[in-house]
Design goal:
The protein is an alpha/beta fold and 256 residues long. The protein is 41% helix and 17% strand. It is built from nine helices and ten strands. It is globular and about 40 Å long.
Length: 256
């Protein structure tokens, strides 16, 4: 199968360095670039876009809640108009920079709590999907497999790329295990590779209890802010090739 490897990047801010964008962009086929609300600033975003252009990685906007201190991982309650305008604003900012720098965005992936909330809340998911469609109906929505966000993207007429996570465990409803629970984040590359291989062989999400939730998927996420992110991404790219799967950009994965 053709499969994409993605990472959340461009999340450094001023003097605060998060992740290793330079190296990760030589490994992954798609980068989800922070839009300034949960992380990122114009210089960081611009460098990430330029590096992705060099390596040929497809890029997307990675909008999140306006929560720098909490890195966008704290749930927020916004009105429908607030959420809609927040997404339109953030996607438009990165899309504008990417266009000016000669490497247009191809997708949108919500970040952190915004993503988690939309996966469980269909009304919120619809607002996000519609905001993406309003901004550019040709954009791909990168959404977790078996989520309400994925369903909302299809309903809004967007191309939807289904995502699984290499370094996170799953619950019986296909949601990610809360980070507050021990073992929710897989820190070693051996654990992450075994987790991904189980899901590829099973043809779906494998929960932490061992149940299989059948689903296709197009992309595998390695969180770029983790200490082992670069090593895990490199090992996973090599393993996918060894297993006979071609690593591609996100549009190529969606196209099949």
């Amino acid at each position: 199968m053709k499969i994409n490897l993605n990472a959340d990047l461009g999340e450094s801010y001023g003097p605060y360095v998060i992740g290793n964008d330079e190296e990760l962009l030589g490994v992954v086929g798609a980068a989800n670039i922070a839009c300034g609300f949960h992380g990122g600033d114009p210089m960081v975003i611009g460098r990430a876009i330029a590096r992705a252009k060099e390596t040929g990685a497809s890029i997307g906007a990675h909008p999140g809640h306006a929560d720098l201190q909490g890195f966008g991982r704290r749930a927020m309650t916004l009105s429908a108009d607030e959420l809609r305008m927040s997404v339109i604003y953030q996607v438009s900012a990165v899309a504008g920079m990417a266009s000016a720098l000669g490497h247009p965005i191809t997708h949108v992936k919500p970040h952190g709590a915004m993503n988690n909330q939309a996966c469980a809340d269909r009304a919120m998911a619809d607002i996000i999907a519609q905001a993406v469609a309003e901004t550019d109906p040709d954009l791909i929505l990168l959404a977790p497999a078996l989520s309400k966000l994925a369903v909302a993207g299809e309903a809004a007429g967007l191309k939807v790329a289904l995502e699984i996570f290499a370094d996170r465990t799953y619950e019986a409803d296909a949601s990610l295990t809360s980070r507050s629970r021990p073992g929710s984040v897989l820190h070693g590359q051996a654990e992450a590779l075994a987790h991904v291989r189980r899901m590829i062989e099973a043809g779906g999400i494998v929960t932490r209890d061992g149940a299989v939730l059948p689903t296709p998927f197009h992309s595998i996420c390695v969180h770029g802010d983790g200490a082992a992110a670069l090593d895990t991404a490199r090992a996973l790219r090599a393993a996918l090739a060894d297993w006979g799967h071609a690593p591609v950009t996100l549009p190529e994965a969606v196209a099949g």
